[in-house]
Amino acid sequence: MAESSRITTRDGVRADARRNRERVLVAARAVFAEHGIDAPMATVARRAGVGVATLYRHFPTRDTLLRGAFAQQMETCGRALTEALAAPDPWQGFQQLVETVCALQREERGFPAAFLAAFPESMSEDAQPWQRAERDFATLVRRAQASGALRADFHPSDLTVVLLAHCGLVAALPDDGAASRRLVAYLLQSFRTDPANEPLPPPSALTVRSLPIATDSPRGRRPPRG
After folding, report:
1. Alpha-carbon torsion, ordered 151, 152, 156, 157, to 10 deg
2. Which of 120, 124, 167, 209 has the greatest number of CB atoms lying within 10 Å of its CB?
3. Does 218 or 31 have the greater pLDDT score?
């Protein structure tokens, strides 16, 4: 059994090392979803059932762990941007890109913070992809504006505002997909030069009394229902 753990795969990685790496990635996504991306690395190691030294051997920094944990989601964002640029209708490409990124925020609870944190610009291997993505998105915005569909005063930085707003909603209501989809639809309509007034997605069941607001103030604490 000990010998089997030393078997290497075609890329030269030992099978046990690959299993450890995958356990760490699964644990990282769970821990970041529950405790945020600043959760202690030791917490990730414990969840994965490996030693801290093993975790750091695979992921020397928090940023490398973040990139590894959400690599698939980041690749999806990259493909969505490429497809948006290739779309015959720039507005449709813009709309699909926003919907795709927001869907990822909704489906993977740890991803919103990881996406918005980006990666350190001081590291050249990280800065280049982000700079290219920013240029591509700016190109998409110009095309959608030139088509007359996207309002002229939309700025590429407004996407960050959208993602922050949606991130807050997802964090407060992680299981309310209806609220997420409706907010995204409202925002997209507000970006149109001439709002199409298309039907919005079905509303959420959320009420003012059910707002998930936590407070330690006795005055602000709601009395128990029933």
Report:
1. -90
2. 167
3. 31
